[in-house]
Amino acid sequence: MDGENVEPNTALYIAEHVHEVKKDSQRILAGLSELMNQEQRDLHLSIADLCGMVIRANEKYAELLKKEIVFQLTCDLDLSTRHVYALLSVLNNLVANAVEAIPLSGWIQLRAELDGGDLVLTVTDSGSGIPEDERDWVFQLGFTTKYDEHGNPSTGIGLTHEKEIVHSFNGNIRLTTDEHGRTQFQINIPSKQL
Question: Domain Histidine kinase: where (predicted)?
Protein backbone atom coordinates (compact mmCIF):
# COMPACT_ATOMS: atom_id res chain seq x y z
CA MET A 1 0.00 0.00 0.00
CA ASP A 2 1.52 3.30 -1.10
CA GLY A 3 1.34 5.89 1.71
CA GLU A 4 0.58 8.69 -0.74
CA ASN A 5 -2.55 6.96 -2.07
CA VAL A 6 -4.20 6.08 1.25
CA GLU A 7 -7.55 7.73 1.86
CA PRO A 8 -7.56 9.89 5.02
CA ASN A 9 -10.46 7.88 6.50
CA THR A 10 -8.59 4.63 5.89
CA ALA A 11 -5.44 6.00 7.49
CA LEU A 12 -7.42 7.17 10.52
CA TYR A 13 -9.14 3.79 10.81
CA ILE A 14 -5.79 1.99 10.70
CA ALA A 15 -4.23 4.38 13.22
CA GLU A 16 -7.09 3.85 15.68
CA HIS A 17 -6.82 0.08 15.44
CA VAL A 18 -3.04 0.17 15.79
CA HIS A 19 -3.57 2.19 18.98
CA GLU A 20 -5.98 -0.44 20.36
CA VAL A 21 -3.56 -3.26 19.50
CA LYS A 22 -0.77 -1.30 21.19
CA LYS A 23 -2.83 -0.87 24.37
CA ASP A 24 -3.66 -4.59 24.42
CA SER A 25 -0.05 -5.58 23.88
CA GLN A 26 1.03 -3.26 26.71
CA ARG A 27 -1.44 -4.98 29.05
CA ILE A 28 -0.19 -8.40 27.99
CA LEU A 29 3.42 -7.29 28.41
CA ALA A 30 2.64 -6.02 31.90
CA GLY A 31 1.16 -9.40 32.81
CA LEU A 32 4.08 -11.31 31.35
CA SER A 33 6.56 -9.02 33.07
CA GLU A 34 4.90 -9.81 36.38
CA LEU A 35 5.24 -13.54 35.77
CA MET A 36 8.89 -13.21 34.78
CA ASN A 37 9.68 -11.07 37.78
CA GLN A 38 8.16 -13.37 40.40
CA GLU A 39 11.68 -14.63 41.07
CA GLN A 40 12.96 -11.12 41.74
CA ARG A 41 11.43 -10.86 45.21
CA ASP A 42 13.82 -8.10 46.24
CA LEU A 43 12.15 -5.56 43.92
CA HIS A 44 9.93 -3.41 46.11
CA LEU A 45 8.23 -0.09 45.51
CA SER A 46 6.21 1.94 47.96
CA ILE A 47 2.49 2.18 47.29
CA ALA A 48 2.85 5.99 47.40
CA ASP A 49 5.54 5.90 44.68
CA LEU A 50 3.52 3.46 42.58
CA CYS A 51 0.42 5.67 42.80
CA GLY A 52 2.54 8.71 41.95
CA MET A 53 3.79 6.97 38.80
CA VAL A 54 0.20 6.27 37.74
CA ILE A 55 -0.80 9.90 38.27
CA ARG A 56 2.20 11.28 36.35
CA ALA A 57 1.63 8.91 33.41
CA ASN A 58 -2.03 9.84 33.18
CA GLU A 59 -1.37 13.57 33.46
CA LYS A 60 0.63 13.13 30.26
CA TYR A 61 -2.14 10.97 28.74
CA ALA A 62 -4.75 13.66 29.51
CA GLU A 63 -2.48 16.29 27.99
CA LEU A 64 -2.08 14.15 24.86
CA LEU A 65 -5.89 13.94 24.59
CA LYS A 66 -6.10 17.73 25.10
CA LYS A 67 -8.12 17.37 28.29
CA GLU A 68 -7.85 19.57 31.35
CA ILE A 69 -7.98 17.14 34.24
CA VAL A 70 -7.03 17.82 37.83
CA PHE A 71 -5.53 14.74 39.49
CA GLN A 72 -5.65 14.23 43.24
CA LEU A 73 -3.62 11.57 45.02
CA THR A 74 -4.35 10.69 48.64
CA CYS A 75 -1.82 8.21 49.96
CA ASP A 76 -0.15 8.42 53.34
CA LEU A 77 0.93 4.81 53.72
CA ASP A 78 4.15 3.20 54.81
CA LEU A 79 3.53 0.14 52.68
CA SER A 80 5.37 -1.37 49.73
CA THR A 81 4.80 -4.12 47.19
CA ARG A 82 6.95 -6.57 45.30
CA HIS A 83 4.17 -6.92 42.68
CA VAL A 84 4.99 -3.62 41.03
CA TYR A 85 4.07 -4.47 37.43
CA ALA A 86 0.77 -6.13 38.25
CA LEU A 87 -0.48 -3.31 40.49
CA LEU A 88 0.83 -0.69 38.09
CA SER A 89 -1.07 -2.36 35.25
CA VAL A 90 -4.32 -2.45 37.23
CA LEU A 91 -4.16 1.11 38.55
CA ASN A 92 -2.94 2.60 35.29
CA ASN A 93 -5.80 1.04 33.34
CA LEU A 94 -8.40 2.26 35.84
CA VAL A 95 -7.05 5.82 35.80
CA ALA A 96 -6.63 5.80 31.99
CA ASN A 97 -10.26 4.68 31.68
CA ALA A 98 -11.23 7.61 33.92
CA VAL A 99 -9.24 10.00 31.70
CA GLU A 100 -11.10 8.67 28.66
CA ALA A 101 -14.48 9.00 30.43
CA ILE A 102 -14.04 12.73 31.03
CA PRO A 103 -15.20 14.77 28.01
CA LEU A 104 -12.96 17.88 28.11
CA SER A 105 -12.26 18.79 31.70
CA GLY A 106 -12.80 17.34 35.13
CA TRP A 107 -11.00 15.59 37.95
CA ILE A 108 -9.76 12.16 38.98
CA GLN A 109 -9.00 11.06 42.51
CA LEU A 110 -6.78 8.10 43.39
CA ARG A 111 -6.92 7.16 47.05
CA ALA A 112 -4.85 4.49 48.81
CA GLU A 113 -5.55 3.58 52.43
CA LEU A 114 -5.50 0.72 54.88
CA ASP A 115 -8.75 -0.75 56.16
CA GLY A 116 -8.08 -3.45 58.70
CA GLY A 117 -5.57 -5.69 57.00
CA ASP A 118 -6.48 -4.64 53.46
CA LEU A 119 -4.95 -2.14 51.08
CA VAL A 120 -7.90 -0.24 49.60
CA LEU A 121 -7.33 1.57 46.30
CA THR A 122 -10.14 3.78 45.03
CA VAL A 123 -10.43 5.62 41.71
CA THR A 124 -13.22 8.18 41.41
CA ASP A 125 -13.78 10.58 38.52
CA SER A 126 -16.09 13.38 37.44
CA GLY A 127 -16.99 11.69 34.16
CA SER A 128 -20.55 10.91 33.11
CA GLY A 129 -20.48 7.54 34.86
CA ILE A 130 -21.46 4.07 33.80
CA PRO A 131 -25.20 3.57 33.32
CA GLU A 132 -26.75 1.41 36.03
CA ASP A 133 -27.96 -1.21 33.54
CA GLU A 134 -24.36 -1.73 32.33
CA ARG A 135 -22.64 -1.98 35.73
CA ASP A 136 -23.17 -5.73 36.11
CA TRP A 137 -21.42 -6.28 32.78
CA VAL A 138 -18.24 -4.19 33.06
CA PHE A 139 -16.02 -7.08 34.18
CA GLN A 140 -17.26 -9.47 31.47
CA LEU A 141 -14.75 -10.28 28.73
CA GLY A 142 -15.57 -8.36 25.57
CA PHE A 143 -17.95 -5.87 27.18
CA THR A 144 -17.10 -2.26 26.39
CA THR A 145 -18.60 1.19 26.65
CA LYS A 146 -15.95 2.64 24.34
CA TYR A 147 -16.51 3.11 20.63
CA ASP A 148 -14.48 5.05 18.10
CA GLU A 149 -16.03 7.66 15.82
CA HIS A 150 -16.81 4.92 13.27
CA GLY A 151 -18.80 2.93 15.83
CA ASN A 152 -16.17 0.22 16.24
CA PRO A 153 -15.99 -1.17 19.78
CA SER A 154 -12.90 -1.35 21.95
CA THR A 155 -11.67 -4.84 22.87
CA GLY A 156 -13.30 -5.11 26.30
CA ILE A 157 -10.21 -6.77 27.78
CA GLY A 158 -9.01 -4.20 30.33
CA LEU A 159 -11.37 -4.62 33.28
CA THR A 160 -11.49 -8.40 32.87
CA HIS A 161 -7.69 -8.48 33.00
CA GLU A 162 -7.69 -6.24 36.09
CA LYS A 163 -10.19 -8.46 37.86
CA GLU A 164 -8.03 -11.53 37.24
CA ILE A 165 -4.91 -9.80 38.57
CA VAL A 166 -6.71 -8.58 41.69
CA HIS A 167 -8.17 -12.05 42.31
CA SER A 168 -4.67 -13.53 42.02
CA PHE A 169 -3.87 -11.54 45.21
CA ASN A 170 -6.99 -12.90 46.95
CA GLY A 171 -8.49 -9.46 46.55
CA ASN A 172 -11.57 -8.05 44.91
CA ILE A 173 -12.48 -5.18 42.63
CA ARG A 174 -15.90 -3.64 42.44
CA LEU A 175 -17.72 -0.84 40.73
CA THR A 176 -19.68 1.40 43.06
CA THR A 177 -20.78 5.00 43.18
CA ASP A 178 -19.74 7.64 45.68
CA GLU A 179 -22.19 9.70 47.77
CA HIS A 180 -22.76 11.97 44.74
CA GLY A 181 -23.47 9.12 42.31
CA ARG A 182 -20.10 9.29 40.55
CA THR A 183 -18.43 6.13 39.26
CA GLN A 184 -15.94 4.64 41.65
CA PHE A 185 -13.77 1.56 41.29
CA GLN A 186 -12.55 0.08 44.55
CA ILE A 187 -9.86 -2.57 44.94
CA ASN A 188 -9.29 -4.43 48.20
CA ILE A 189 -6.11 -6.52 48.53
CA PRO A 190 -4.94 -8.17 51.75
CA SER A 191 -1.75 -6.29 52.67
CA LYS A 192 0.01 -9.58 53.40
CA GLN A 193 -0.30 -10.39 49.67
CA LEU A 194 1.73 -7.35 48.65
Answer: 87-193
- Scanning 41-179, the segments in alpha helix (DSSP H) are 47-64, 84-101, 158-168
Contact 175, 138 (CB under 8 A): yes
CB 74 within 8 A of CB 109: yes
Q: What pLDDT is recorded for position 1? A: 47
- Interatomic CA distance for residues 171 and 61, integer angstroms: 28
Instruction: Write down the pLDDT at residue 143.
Output: 62
Q: Rounded to whole angstroms, how far apart are CA atoms 145 and 130? A: 8
**Please, what are the domains in the chain?**
3-193 (3.30.565.10)
* Lowest-pLDDT range of 136-140, 149-153, 161-165: 149-153
Note the Cα 73 to chain centre separation in Å.
15
Rounded distance between C-alpha atoms, residue 91 and residue 97, angstroms? 10
pLDDT over 90 percentage in the chain: 45
Any residues with CB less than 8 A from the CB of 165 and at least 6 apart, and which?
31, 34, 86, 89, 90
